[in-house]
Design a protein that fits this description.
- This protein is 38% helix and 16% strand.
- With 267 residues, the protein is of the alpha/beta class.
- The chain has a single domain, classed as Alpha-Beta Barrel (TIM Barrel).
- Strands 1, 2, 3, 4, 5, 8, 9 and 10 form an 8-stranded mixed beta sheet that branches.
- Strand 1, helix 1 and strand 2 form a beta-alpha-beta unit.
- Helix 1 runs parallel beside helix 2 and helix 4 packs parallel to helix 6.
């Protein structure tokens, strides 16, 4: 088991519409900050308003190859990847992408809940927060049961807008909502991602994350990856030491690799 986290399997380059730095800049920063393995996982997204976006994959892979040639001899392993937004709602399109290209890391993320952006606090406005959490984790479980990939992201993202609007979470009320989704994730051998973005922001925030990771272990979860979801260089590896403490306390080892993606779509 590694002594500290030297990996980051989730980050975005300028091949994503919200990425600020090139693959080369991300690699340089990661190497300078003593990471040994990274995955550049740019967005593939189908928005409720009909907009779609995906990287220019030929240019993405060309850039990735150049960076492997430059940074590989210096000790940085660079994995290909993508982050699929709500893939269970777009299975034919997802399968077409995965048939056309080979990726080391395939992230499945729930970004939209009944057409609403889960990153925005308005999804909780004038609503029972536990009703929103229930809808979210039910859909997360559905996504985990059918989507292809090897890493489930954003289990923790829904808590941030929820706690901003409604305050601290009640672990006892949340447990029966979250556990079924974790069982689905564990059953298909997904790795669960702990997003480090908010680990140092809110007093008591980490307590609920610790509880969820313990439930995932009890469900037989394959492992937990501590990732930054960086959209700019300076976010790579942020709060990784805090994440390492949470993962170890939940009984998981620190990962230095991921299993191969499950690429066959379950129908």
């Amino acid at each position: 088991m590694p002594e500290t986290i030297r990996t980051d399997f989730h980050m975005h380059s300028t091949f994503s519409p919200d990425g600020h730095d090139t693959i080369h800049q991300l690699c340089r920063y990661a190497l300078e900050h003593e990471l040994t393995t990274i995955a550049v996982t740019d967005h593939v997204e189908w928005q409720p308003d009909g907009r779609q976006y995906a990287p220019d994959f030929p240019r993405y892979f060309e850039s990735l190859l150049r960076c492997r040639e430059e940074f590989g001899p210096q000790g940085l392993r660079i994995l290909s990847g993508l982050e699929l937004g709500n893939p269970h709602h777009h299975m034919p399109e997802v399968q077409a992408v995965l048939d056309a290209y080979e990726f080391d890391v395939v992230i499945a993320s729930l970004h939209w809940l009944d057409g609403e952006n889960i990153h925005n606090t308005r999804i909780f406005a004038d609503r029972d927060p536990y009703a929103v959490y229930s809808r979210y984790f039910a859909d997360l479980g559905r996504m985990a049961s059918v989507a292809p990939g090897n890493l489930i992201a954003h289990f923790d993202r829904i808590f941030w807008p929820g706690t901003q609007v409604h305050g601290a979470l009640d672990t006892a009320r949340l447990e029966p909502i979250v556990r079924p989704a974790l069982e689905q994730i564990a059953a298909r051998n997904w790795v669960l991602e702990l997003n480090t973005r908010f680990l140092a922001h809110t007093p008591g925030w980490n307590d609920i994350l610790q509880a969820v990771l313990l439930w995932f272990n009890e469900a037989g979860g394959a492992g937990v990856a501590v990732d930054s979801d960086a959209h700019r260089c300076k976010e790579i590896g942020r709060h990784r030491d805090v994440g390492a403490v949470l993962v170890r306390a939940a009984g998981f080892p620190l990962l230095n690799t991921l299993p191969a993606p499950q690429l066959a779509v379950v129908r």
